[in-house]
Amino acid sequence: MDGVLDAVGGDLFGPCVEASRRNGVLSLVGAVAGSDVRFDAWSLIRPVTLTGYSSQTLDGPALCNAVTALADWLVRGVIKPPVRTHFPLAQAARAHALLERGGVTGRVLLVP
Question: How far is residue 105's CA from residue 99's CA, in Å, rounded to a whole number?
Answer without folding.
Answer: 9
